Amino acid sequence: WASVAGAPLVLRASLGEPVDDLLAALRRAPAGRVGIELHLAVPSECECACAFCSKDGRAPDPAPEPALERACALAEAARPLSRAGSPLSVVLVGNDALRFPAFDALLAIWADVAPDTFEIVTPGTSLADPLVAERLSASGLAPCLSMTLHGPDEATHDAVAGLVGAFQRLQNAVNNCRAWGLSVHLHHVLTASALASLPQTLALAASWCEHVSLVAFASEPHHHDPKQTPRAFLDAMVPAPRAVRAALEDYEELLGQTLVALAGFPACLVPVSLRARLFYGGPGRSDLPSELPPACRSCSANPAMCPGPDRGTLAVHGAEWLQPL
Description:
Elements: E1 9-14, H1 20-28, E2 36-42, H2 64-83, E3 88-94, H3 103-113, E4 117-121, H4 130-137, E5 144-148, H5 154-161, H6 166-179, E6 183-190, H7 198-208, E7 212-216, H8 231-237, H9 241-250, H10 252-258, E8 259-263, E9 278-279, H11 294-297, H12 311-317
Parallel strand pairs: 1-2, 2-3, 3-4, 4-5, 5-6, 6-7, 7-8, 8-9
């Protein structure tokens, strides 16, 4: 039920598509014996067009009713597991879940189940409106809002986000969340171009928020497919692993003072002092190779913390940089 003993069962699905497989997995799960972590992609639009994102965030929304019906079915399947003592975490992802047309109804569905944790991953533009933060605060879910800071200044952030004013709206979003007692997590995605300004970006993030994470760039579902994505995209986005290792070593003290987590990084790139903060969300990432390189097969790294290399990195930089622990 989990790749590592004690790890939660991580299940992922899109509410924009049938969820029969996820429902079957929930109904088979041993109640009270394993934690459940649901990652649900909410069909929605996004005002941003982030440089590293594979999704067409500005695609039209489908009708919300089927997504709500699927959410109801999943909530009912998860309820007995939660009541039996299985820790239940729900994470809403997607282009921007907060812009789902029936978002309040979606919140009400999960508020009735009362999961142990409830997280919303969002670019944060909607939260620039204090009324949105107020509604979330009143939901009874005590949601955590996970947002992304793209750079150390307005020009860099707006350029990566593909939206003028995105930086100011993110800052307003953080302030609004704090004003309404909502937990905020800030992430920074480490692309090739982000390496040069890494210390400045992390220092800014830490001045806004106590929970800061550094996230490895992931070659999302079609980034590694040459039939769908030009190799030039990967060449521009994927940082050289040796450069990542050097940066993490150079800024080890700052990272130790600033970060609560390093997400998705192979353990061999991370200084020993920071490896306890490695985080890997578990099976389900579609950008991982079907077979681990030989160096990974002989490595002692905890698979609950280390995903190994993604296919995009292997395609651009090979596997020679890997160093078994």
